[in-house]
Amino acid sequence: MQPHIRLSNSMTGARYALLPGDPERVDRIAHFLDNPEILGQNREFRAARGTYKGIEILVLSTGIGGPSTAIAIEELRQIGVDTLIRIGSCGALQDTLALGDLIIANGAVADDGTSKTYAPACYPACADPQLIATLIQQAKQMNIPAICGLVRSHDSFLYRS
């Protein structure tokens, strides 16, 4: 049993996880899965599982920010999850982007404190190219406009630069 997310290998065999920040989004996301089941909640970590096309998917909220997200990711890796997709809100600097646009991050500029404990700031934080290609392909097949590019992680959620 992982101490923070309160999940274990016996509770889920999922390799794939969706990571919203807000615990309330877990139930909304799980609703789209077959046979959804709420697994529990500890602090900001609310968990559910279900299947999509026969594949088990775990949904786990992370709260806001890098420290709690890092805890979730490390503990998910301990129970065998190896593919994680963070879903939620982000800010934008481009005037061409609108509220609700789908952004697929292929990398991140690490401008936060938590990332520095894992790698130097000069080390690129890049997403898995195959996963990115799959997400772009699925968005096209579903006629969902998507923008692919870099994002920036930062400790100040409402900071305007």
Would you kindly provide a written description of the structure presented here, covering whatever features stand out?
With 161 residues, this protein is of the alpha/beta class. It folds into 2 domains: 1-88, Nucleoside phosphorylase domain (Rossmann fold); 89-161, no CATH class. 24% of the residues lie in helices and 32% in strands. The chain is built from 4 helices and 8 strands, in the order E-H-E-E-E-H-E-E-H-E-H-E. The protein has helices spanning 23-30, 66-78, 113-116, 129-141, and strands spanning 16-19, 34-42, 45-52, 55-60, 83-86, 102-111, 125-126, 146-154. A hairpin with a 2-residue loop joins strand 3 and strand 4 (55-60). The chain is globular. The N and C termini lie far apart (41 Å). The mean pLDDT is 93.
Looking at the overall shape, the CATH architecture of the largest domain is 3-Layer(aba) Sandwich
Question: What's the β-strand tally?
Answer: 8
Stretches where pLDDT is under 50 for at least 5 consecutive residues are none
CATH superfamily of the largest domain: Nucleoside phosphorylase domain
What fraction, in percent, of the residue positions are helical?
A: 10-25%
End-to-end Cα distance: 41 Å
Biggest β-sheet, characterized? 5 strands, mixed
Which structural class matches the secondary elements?
alpha/beta
Shape: globular
- Average pLDDT number: 93
Broad CATH class of the largest domain: Alpha Beta
Q: What quaternary form is this? A: single chain
CATH topology of the largest domain: Rossmann fold
Task: Tell me the β content.
Answer: 25-35%
- The total of helices stands at 4
Give the neighbour order of strands across the main sheet: 2-3-4-1-5
| Number of self-contained structural domains | 2
| Gyration radius from CA atoms, angstroms | 16 Å
The arrangement of helices and strands along the chain is EHEEEHEEHEHE
Catalytic activity: uridine + phosphate = alpha-D-ribose 1-phosphate + uracil
Organism: Citrobacter koseri (Citrobacter diversus)
Domain Nucleoside phosphorylase: 15-159
GO cellular component, one term: cytosol
